[in-house]
């Protein structure tokens, strides 16, 4: 705006305002009042009857007055267009607007702007009069009048209506004129360097052409000034003024006075002031600058919301705290005040030190050091330059040495303002960073500070918002002068007594405290670089009083780095401290220790009193340590580094450090047998030493749920490794070919390693491998033929390739094969697996199998016991399946196209066809007429059968789950509504050779919203006689629920047709209790079916029928008696701990010779 204003008024001006009006319409009232208001506010205003000299030609005098004015106000009234002089004035005014950028402000005084714009109404009548008998020359002039009227009426204007107060409009016009004539500017000083580019960035954010309210945030550390900002109201030092009584009230009053250009009525309180600001300024286009804001309250009371100001307004806010801008909803992005670059800093410093913008030659070296010290901070450059002006080079040298210990107070006092605005925890974080952690990795520092209960992430945000730190490339950076300010804060109270400081970081101060035993409880942290300090002994007495010590680091980073990163091998013993550095009874007094880093720790164990319950990180690089601890539990410990500790015999048991994230064991000389790192979710790589030393004997390596990215090729040295698992290693990308050298490997699991790019081609060389899991591995799989010892192979959800399984019968030991949710058809795998005569379990769930795609050769799987074909799309399955003479379980659930099931082997004990085609035809082998096959069953207390994923059946006999649209089969004669049914037993039932057993059946529906009382009421059959000593339902229900929870440990990993992990799916448990009734009560058996399927998530077990065939041979001889006159079957269902309602149930005695069964079905 500064440049625009300068250009606009650059022509010679005598008058501030020229008034153009029709005298007879407004001279004696509106125009007169407006003229008086302008003159009263010091605005030099021209109107014709006062300013023209007597005898002067009116037309030329008026034209000259227009040219010599900065602003023209045109008052359009009813008869304005009747005056040729008024119209000529208007043409001249528009000419000056174009050529001189004169400001033109129209006022429509009781006329419609559209009448002026289009020359209608009285304006149309006036032009009709002007055009009467007009010649060509006059017509040209009339066209200029029309053009001028149209252009002027399109400008921003005021309109005065009949019911509107003239005084209000006049006040607005006057304020606007004053604002345009007298823009307020902030003094910018004389020595301005590097401002042009910064102002260009700020100007782009202000965006003066955007016609909406915009709040612009400007933030930076103390000592970086905001200059050259023009505005209607500049509220300087808001932070400082707000600290005084009524400070905010005075700032509100100043804001109003600045903008309204008059003394506003007195405001009694800040809440009233908020309302006045909003009411007075909501229609005004304003520029407001708030300088040095440090509290949200200041913004709320001074510039509450965008709608407090008129469209096109700009609110500029300077602050050291970025969070205030976020909290107040200031428009983004913010303008970050940048430090000066080296060239700009040198120029600014020279202006103050030498009164010229270039340095003197004999000061060049000192000047470079001084500019480096200030690091682009303008305040520091100004203060130091002024202080050193006209001083000799030797005096400069002396000042530099002093500044290293005692920063200039003028600089520190400004920088401390941000520190004093922090709370206690934030101050602690700031001082820890300033003294110990500048330049360190953010995650490392966050881990340590969180261990100190400092809420690191929240603190980092505040420090970053207040420009006290910068986080770049995940490193924490801090301006040197801010760091020096932190040091000064630590020292200031006891400047010459380091034993009373909270933090010690300089070797000479640490040495002073430890050698003179002057440490106190004030000390919270010690960082000592032994490579730059004198030799000293660490004694218990030196640490005795430090009972608040949180952080202790005794390091030799230079030596360690040269050892690790040098091309030449350096002996780790060079880092090891001598035993002379420690007394034999050395102890740590503090129980507050969170971080212990001790390079070259010389003792074989930690002190006996070592309290590590609060320890977050333990780093004992190049130590003599042999063993850390045995049985203690350290829940807070996240990092252990024992690199180059040659004498270490045993690493901590992972169970003692359950939250361990990083374990570093480089270059060890010891033997391990068992290493489990499950759940170390931040573990990205393994210790190199585990692979390098051939003497190492690790048999088990579990890396599940770690962040490991690749296995190094040196893993081949683990010759004794038998079990290697990397389940759910989401970042694992590479597996080296050398893994195929692990000839002792028995189990290899890469399940759910979704980013794995390639597997070694020679996996078949793992001759001892028994279990291989490649579940949900997306990369192409190599040929697995030749794994002669392989017994279990999991390829579900994997990226099958043509040759992964071949027809060469080299997988002749394979018993379990999971191909679910894989493309088995396109790869031709189904036909090739039919030769696997040893296969016992085959999972083909959700393989998109269509009609005819199951090969009839499946009958060659002579050892097959479990076959899961669920979630497929065929109409039928091959009849040859009846030849699978060992088949026990068949899964056909969710096969919506399946019309019928062929005859099945007599060995089958579990058929799950729930949620399949509603008209599914069950084979006759599963009808009562075929029930005689159960005569050969042997009674077993642990009888159970299961499918690959689900369900799991516990109990004797046969279990069938079918779609339940038709309800309980009609041939089951004894049916009852509710959850239990009772039948009478015939005389000598146990001795009848034709009696085969019982058919049991139940149908389930959702519980809906019925009350628990109503539901339980429905469980009881009121016709039954309580004298028969039946157990209370609740008692059995609780028993059933408890037993079901302990009955099965099986967990499915299948949730839906979309094929994703479902370990969190709750099981649906269907249960049946068989109880003999007579003079007494006897529990016969408990049958249970547990299943995990997504359809149970939706509606429990509803829409399905559970059929059980319970054979007589399963009934123990002790129950073969006529005293048991009745048999009761009670059915229950539980889903996710909630009862599933049994709608109906039934029971039927089955006999071998009964013509009634010949034509029955399960429908």
Automatic annotation (TrEMBL):
<feature type="region of interest" description="Disordered">
    <location>
        <begin position="1013"/>
        <end position="1052"/>
    </location>
</feature>
<dbReference type="Pfam" id="PF07725">
    <property type="entry name" value="LRR_3"/>
</dbReference>
<dbReference type="GO" id="GO:0005737">
    <property type="term" value="C:cytoplasm"/>
</dbReference>
<keyword id="KW-0378">Hydrolase</keyword>
<feature type="compositionally biased region" description="Basic and acidic residues">
    <location>
        <begin position="1016"/>
        <end position="1025"/>
    </location>
</feature>
<dbReference type="InterPro" id="IPR001611">
    <property type="entry name" value="Leu-rich_rpt"/>
</dbReference>
<dbReference type="GO" id="GO:0061809">
    <property type="term" value="F:NAD+ nucleosidase activity, cyclic ADP-ribose generating"/>
</dbReference>
<keyword id="KW-0539">Nucleus</keyword>
<feature type="domain" description="TIR">
    <location>
        <begin position="13"/>
        <end position="181"/>
    </location>
</feature>
<dbReference type="InterPro" id="IPR055414">
    <property type="entry name" value="LRR_R13L4/SHOC2-like"/>
</dbReference>
<dbReference type="Pfam" id="PF20160">
    <property type="entry name" value="C-JID"/>
</dbReference>
<dbReference type="InterPro" id="IPR058192">
    <property type="entry name" value="WHD_ROQ1-like"/>
</dbReference>
<keyword id="KW-0520">NAD</keyword>
<dbReference type="Pfam" id="PF00931">
    <property type="entry name" value="NB-ARC"/>
</dbReference>
<keyword id="KW-0963">Cytoplasm</keyword>
<dbReference type="InterPro" id="IPR011713">
    <property type="entry name" value="Leu-rich_rpt_3"/>
</dbReference>
<dbReference type="InterPro" id="IPR000157">
    <property type="entry name" value="TIR_dom"/>
</dbReference>
<dbReference type="InterPro" id="IPR027417">
    <property type="entry name" value="P-loop_NTPase"/>
</dbReference>
<keyword id="KW-0433">Leucine-rich repeat</keyword>
<dbReference type="InterPro" id="IPR044974">
    <property type="entry name" value="Disease_R_plants"/>
</dbReference>
<dbReference type="GO" id="GO:0043531">
    <property type="term" value="F:ADP binding"/>
</dbReference>
<protein>
    <recommendedName>
        <fullName>ADP-ribosyl cyclase/cyclic ADP-ribose hydrolase</fullName>
        <ecNumber>3.2.2.6</ecNumber>
    </recommendedName>
</protein>
<dbReference type="GO" id="GO:0050832">
    <property type="term" value="P:defense response to fungus"/>
</dbReference>
<dbReference type="GO" id="GO:0007165">
    <property type="term" value="P:signal transduction"/>
</dbReference>
<dbReference type="InterPro" id="IPR035897">
    <property type="entry name" value="Toll_tir_struct_dom_sf"/>
</dbReference>
<dbReference type="Pfam" id="PF23598">
    <property type="entry name" value="LRR_14"/>
</dbReference>
<dbReference type="InterPro" id="IPR042197">
    <property type="entry name" value="Apaf_helical"/>
</dbReference>
<dbReference type="InterPro" id="IPR032675">
    <property type="entry name" value="LRR_dom_sf"/>
</dbReference>
<keyword id="KW-0611">Plant defense</keyword>
<dbReference type="GO" id="GO:0005634">
    <property type="term" value="C:nucleus"/>
</dbReference>
<comment type="similarity">
    <text>Belongs to the disease resistance TIR-NB-LRR family.</text>
</comment>
<dbReference type="InterPro" id="IPR045344">
    <property type="entry name" value="C-JID"/>
</dbReference>
<dbReference type="GO" id="GO:0043068">
    <property type="term" value="P:positive regulation of programmed cell death"/>
</dbReference>
<dbReference type="InterPro" id="IPR003591">
    <property type="entry name" value="Leu-rich_rpt_typical-subtyp"/>
</dbReference>
<dbReference type="Pfam" id="PF01582">
    <property type="entry name" value="TIR"/>
</dbReference>
<keyword id="KW-0677">Repeat</keyword>
<dbReference type="InterPro" id="IPR002182">
    <property type="entry name" value="NB-ARC"/>
</dbReference>
<dbReference type="Pfam" id="PF23282">
    <property type="entry name" value="WHD_ROQ1"/>
</dbReference>
């Amino acid at each position: 705006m500064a440049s625009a204003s300068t250009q606009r008024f650059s022509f010679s001006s005598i008058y501030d305002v020229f008034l153009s009006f029709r005298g007879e319409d407004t001279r004696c009232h509106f125009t007169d009042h407006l003229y008086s208001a302008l003159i009263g506010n010091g605005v030099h205003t021209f109107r014709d009857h006062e300013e023209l000299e007597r005898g002067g030609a009116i037309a030329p005098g008026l034209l000259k007055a227009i040219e010599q004015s900065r602003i023209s106000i045109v008052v359009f009234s009813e008869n304005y267009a009747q005056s040729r002089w008024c119209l000529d004035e208007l043409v001249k005014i528009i000419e000056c607007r174009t050529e001189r950028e004169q400001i033109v402000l129209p006022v429509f005084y009781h006329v419609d702007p559209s009448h002026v714009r289009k020359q209608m109404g009285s304006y149309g009548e006036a032009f009709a009069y002007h055009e009467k008998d007009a010649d060509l020359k006059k017509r040209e002039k009339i066209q200029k009048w029309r053009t001028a009227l149209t252009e002027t009426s399109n400008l921003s204007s005021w309109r005065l209506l009949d019911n509107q107060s003239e005084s209000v409009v006049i006040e607005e016009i006057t304020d606007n004129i004053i604002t345009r004539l007298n823009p307020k500017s902030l003094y910018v000083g004389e020595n301005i360097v590097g401002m042009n580019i910064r102002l260009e960035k700020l100007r782009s954010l202000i965006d003066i052409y955007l016609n909406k309210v915009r709040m612009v945030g400007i933030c930076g550390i103390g000592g970086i000034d905001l200059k050259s900002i023009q505005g209607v109201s500049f509220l300087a030092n808001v932070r400082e003024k707000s600290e005084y009584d009524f400070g905010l009230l005075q700032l509100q009053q100043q804001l109003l006075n600045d903008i309204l250009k008059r003394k506003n009525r007195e405001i009694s309180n800040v809440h009233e002031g908020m309302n006045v600001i909003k009411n007075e300024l909501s229609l005004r286009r304003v520029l407001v600058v708030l300088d040095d804001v440090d509290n949200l309250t200041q913004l709320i009371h001074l510039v509450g919301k965008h709608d407090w100001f008129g469209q096109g307004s700009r609110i500029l806010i300077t602050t050291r705290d970025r969070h205030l801008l976020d909290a107040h909803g200031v428009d983004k992005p913010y303008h970050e005040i940048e430090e000066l670059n080296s060239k700009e800093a040198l120029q600014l410093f020279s202006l103050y030190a030498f009164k010229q913008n270039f340095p003197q030659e004999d000061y060049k070296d000192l000047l470079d050091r001084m500019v480096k010290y200030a690091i682009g901070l303008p305040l520091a450059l100004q203060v130091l330059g002024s202080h050193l002006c006209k001083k000799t080079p030797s005096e400069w040298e002396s000042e530099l040495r002093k500044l290293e210990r005692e920063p200039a107070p003028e600089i520190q006092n400004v920088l401390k303002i941000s520190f004093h605005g922090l709370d206690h925890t934030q101050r602690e974080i700031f001082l820890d960073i300033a003294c110990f952690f500048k330049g360190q990795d953010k995650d490392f520092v966050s881990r340590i500070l969180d261990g100190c209960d400092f809420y690191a992430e929240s603190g980092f945000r505040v420090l970053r918002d207040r420009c006290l730190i910068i986080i770049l490339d995940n490193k924490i950076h801090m301006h040197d002068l801010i760091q020096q300010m932190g040091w000064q804060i630590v020292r200031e109270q006891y400047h010459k007594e380091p034993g009373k400081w909270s933090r010690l970081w300089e070797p000479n101060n640490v040495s002073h405290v430890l050698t003179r035993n002057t440490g106190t409880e004030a000390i919270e942290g010690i960082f000592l670089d032994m490579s730059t300090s004198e030799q000293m002994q660490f004694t218990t007495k030196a640490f005795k009083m430090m009972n608040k010590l949180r952080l202790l680091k005794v390091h030799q980073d230079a030596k360690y780095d040269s050892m690790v990163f040098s091309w030449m091998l350096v002996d780790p013993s060079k880092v090891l401290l001598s035993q002379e550095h420690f007394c034999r009874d050395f102890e740590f007094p503090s129980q507050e220790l969170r971080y212990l880093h001790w390079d070259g720790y010389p003792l074989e164990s930690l002190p006996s009193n070592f309290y590590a319950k609060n320890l977050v990180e333990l780093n004992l690089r190049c130590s003599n340590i042999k063993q850390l601890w045995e049985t203690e539990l350290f829940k807070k410990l996240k990092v252990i580094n024992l690199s180059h500790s040659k004498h270490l015999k045993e690493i901590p048991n992972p169970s003692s450090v359950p939250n361990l994230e990083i374990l570093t064991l480089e270059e060890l000389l010891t033997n391990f047998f068992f290493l489990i790192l499950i759940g170390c979710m931040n573990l990205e790589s393994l210790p190199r030493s585990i692979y390098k030393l051939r003497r190492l004997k690790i048999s088990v390596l579990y890396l599940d749920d770690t962040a490991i990215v690749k296995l190094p090729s040196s893993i081949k040295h683990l010759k004794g490794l038998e079990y290697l698992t990397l389940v759910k290693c989401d970042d694992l990308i590479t597996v080296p070919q050398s893994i195929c050298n692990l000839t002792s490997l028995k189990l290899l699991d890469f399940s759910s390693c979704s980013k794995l790019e390639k597997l070694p081609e020679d996996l078949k060389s793992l001759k001892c491998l028994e279990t291989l899991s490649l579940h949900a591995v997306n990369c192409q799989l190599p040929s697995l033929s030749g794994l002669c010892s392989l017994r279990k192979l999991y390829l579900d959800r994997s990226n099958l390739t043509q040759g992964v399984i071949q027809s060469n019968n080299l997988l002749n030991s394979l018993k379990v094969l999971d191909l679910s949710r894989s493309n088995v058809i396109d790869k031709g795998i189904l036909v090739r697996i039919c030769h696997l005569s040893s296969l016992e379990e085959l999972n083909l769930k959700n393989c998109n199998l269509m009609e005819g795609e199951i090969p009839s050769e499946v009958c060659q799987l002579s050892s097959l016991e479990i076959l899961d074909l669920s979630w497929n799309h065929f109409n039928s399955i091959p009849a040859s399946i009846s030849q699978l003479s060992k088949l026990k379980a068949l899964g056909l659930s969710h096969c919506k196209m399946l019309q019928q099931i062929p005859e099945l082997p007599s060995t089958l004990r579990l058929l799950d066809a729930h949620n399949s085609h509603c008209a599914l035809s069950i084979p006759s082998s599963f009808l009562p007429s075929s029930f005689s096959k159960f005569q050969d069953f042997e009674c077993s207390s642990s009888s159970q059968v299961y499918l690959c994923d689900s369900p799991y059946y516990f109990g004797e006999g046969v279990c069938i789950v079918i779609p339940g649209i038709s309800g309980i089969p009609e041939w089951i004669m004894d049916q009852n509504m509710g959850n239990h049914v009772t039948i009478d037993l015939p005389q000598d039932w146990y001795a009848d050779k034709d009696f085969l057993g019982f058919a049991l059946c139940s149908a389930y529906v959702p519980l809906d919203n019925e009350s628990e009382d109503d539901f339980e009421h429905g469980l009881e059959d009121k016709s039954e006689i309580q004298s028969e000593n039946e157990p209370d339902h609740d008692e059995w229900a609780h028993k059933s629920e408890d037993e079901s929870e302990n009955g099965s440990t099986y967990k499915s990993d299948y949730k839906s047709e979309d094929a994703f992990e479902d370990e969190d799916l709750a099981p649906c448990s269907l249960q049946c209790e068989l109880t003999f009734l007579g003079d007494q009560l006897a529990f016969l058996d408990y049958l249970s079916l547990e299943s995990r399927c997504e359809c149970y998530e939706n509606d429990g077990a509803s829409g399905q029928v559970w059929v059980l065939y319970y054979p007589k041979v399963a009934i123990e001889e002790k129950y073969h008696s006529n005293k048991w006159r009745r048999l009761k079957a009670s059915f229950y269902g539980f889903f996710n701990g909630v009862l599933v309602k049994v709608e109906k149930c039934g029971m039927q005695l089955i006999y071998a010779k009964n013509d009634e069964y010949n034509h029955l079905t399960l429908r």
